[in-house]
Specification:
Length: 398
């Protein structure tokens, strides 16, 4: 019998075109042999539905903006370079970018950062520098924009802090509205990520620690000094043994990857739910006990380690065998309408790996139907059970 048609949402991404800049250096600059080496790529997230996708690729000194045009001709590269922006500051080495937009006109802006400790915000339509955000005391290795408010940007730096910046005009004189620092990290930061609500932030880096911070209510008027959060509400250095170079939320769960481990880990912070009211700063556990490798405000403390509730649970491990020795290798989540959420990773050998997150819950549902004929029992376990499958189902409800 012929195979039934596969619904579109079950389709994994396919390679449409390979786009290199080896033949496009005339668009860049010939003063550096590394002009075509790119460290970060981000799609513009605010396009109207049906519009051609636009992405930015960031190299040491350049930002290349590309549009993907619809074409059925396999000989035609769908990637069209629409603008090249050059950073003319001396000694600059950029490595990260994130999209935002103007507070009034909604014109697209792109923030970039790197070795010079600055966050530079470009008006990509005009191709000019709109604003420069300064304050970090070390290189900036990652940027993220709040999903809840495109005017809020987070930056992770070698100075061990995360800074929260506001592009709202009311904060023009003092754009840094919050600093996540103090006793959170002890070494260079490599990755920062927002929760979908915009209220929680993940940070990770060289100290093998992953922190979950609760953002305070950010000021709506000018403030002379930023709010400082000294302690995260969750912190662990037990999950990974190597430097952590990529973290992300998946629902209320967390994805993280460390160098030398050959895996991406999906895990959850026990007791954490974005549906609950955000915990106050006073609830954040301190690090007065250096022997505690994991600290959490989401589970009740216990004086007896034998009876202490688990602070986190590993749910799944995704193998990226052979990638362990590579540094600053990032995964990403593709979550778009009409498709299952896809975890994607690519190594230096151009091996692209995809994991359909919905297939894990689909397979678990199938096994439950086969092994448990009672539908009421199945629904009860799927709705509230502590299993990895239940956690995945809550992150991606059908």
């Amino acid at each position: 019998m012929p195979a039934a048609d596969v619904p579109d949402e079950w389709e994994l991404p396919k390679l449409r075109a390979s786009f290199g800049f080896e033949d496009d250096h005339h668009l860049l600059d010939d003063d550096s042999r590394d002009s075509g080496e790119f460290f970060d790529v981000k799609f513009y997230p605010y396009n109207p539905p049906g519009s051609p996708p636009i992405f930015a690729a960031v190299s040491k000194k350049h930002v290349v903006l590309c549009r993907i045009t619809p074409t059925t001709d396999k000989e035609t590269n769908p990637c069209e370079i629409i603008k090249v922006i050059r950073d003319d500051d001396n000694g600059v080495v950029n490595c990260s970018c994130t999209w935002t937009k103007d507070a009034v006109t909604e014109a697209p802006y792109l923030a970039i950062s790197g070795r010079d400790r600055k966050v530079k915000v470009y008006d990509v339509v005009k191709g000019i520098l709109f604003k420069t955000l300064v304050g970090h005391g070390g290189e900036i290795n990652d940027l993220a924009t709040s999903p809840d408010n495109p005017l809020i940007i987070a930056s992770a730096s070698d100075d061990t802090t995360v800074r929260i910046w506001s592009l709202d005009p009311v904060h023009a004189k003092q754009p840094c509205v919050c600093i996540l620092g103090g006793e959170g990290h002890s070494w260079n930061l490599l990755s920062v990520a927002f929760h979908q609500t915009g209220r929680y932030v993940l940070s990770a880096g060289h100290d093998t620690t992953v922190n979950l911070w609760t953002l305070p209510d950010l000021p709506k008027e000018h403030v002379d000094q930023p709010i400082v959060n000294y302690y995260p509400h969750f912190s662990t250095s037990e999950l990974h043994t190597g430097l952590v170079d990529c973290v992300a939320f998946y629902g209320d769960m967390i994805l993280s990857k460390a160098c030398h481990e050959d895996t991406i880990v999906l895990w959850r912070v026990e007791g954490f739910s974005s549906q609950d009211p955000p915990p106050p700063a006073s609830d954040a556990p301190t690090n007065h006990d250096p022997a505690r490798l994991t600290r959490s405000s989401f589970v009740p403390p216990s004086a007896n380690p034998q009876t202490c509730a688990a602070a986190y649970t590993r749910l799944l491990k995704f193998s990226i065998k052979g990638c362990g020795h590579q540094f600053f290798m990032r995964f990403s989540m593709l979550q778009t309408k009409g498709m299952h959420p896809i975890l994607a990773f690519c190594d230096t050998a151009s091996k692209i790996m995809f994991w359909d997150m919905a297939r894990f819950t689909g397979y678990a549902d199938f096994v439950r139907e086969v092994t448990d004929p009672d539908p009421d029992q199945r629904r009860a376990r799927a709705a509230g059970g502590p299993s990895p499958q239940a956690a995945l189902a809550r992150a991606h409800p059908s």
